[in-house]
Design a protein that fits this description.
about 150 residues, alpha+beta, Alpha-Beta Plaits, 6 strands, elongated
Amino acid sequence: MRTFLLILVGLLATTFSFAQVDTISELSVDTTGIAIVDGLDVNRDARLDKMLKWHIEKNEKREGMSGFRVEIFFSSSMDAKEQALNTKTEFLTDYPDFPVHIKFIAPNFRVRVGDFRTKNEALKLYKQVQKDYPSAFIVPDVIEFPLLKQNQYE
């Protein structure tokens, strides 16, 4: 009985191993080097195309990307705008390497510093400014796209 089962399993294994089709020969490569499958017919819901179009349009309207900043000042007092401008100039004299943004989100004026992609990057600046600005904290915000560094080849 055991030998019969072993022979049966062996026959099934060899049958399935030869049943695979070589799909690499079905691919053709155009002049740009992108592989295209000939005769590809994709059946998908029309709602998927609508969602993809909506996603592309929404991202084209955004003027930045999700990231983090360190908020060093916020106030809704009568002279909050002047205080925000003073805080900005004071910060730039001490830390000239970081961009400073003044935002008005009713009813507060806010001074936010930096354009960081991760919270860990913002935490480094937060630790530096914590002595001068004890009320500072890290906030998620839409940041400007970071500049790409060009590779320096020798």
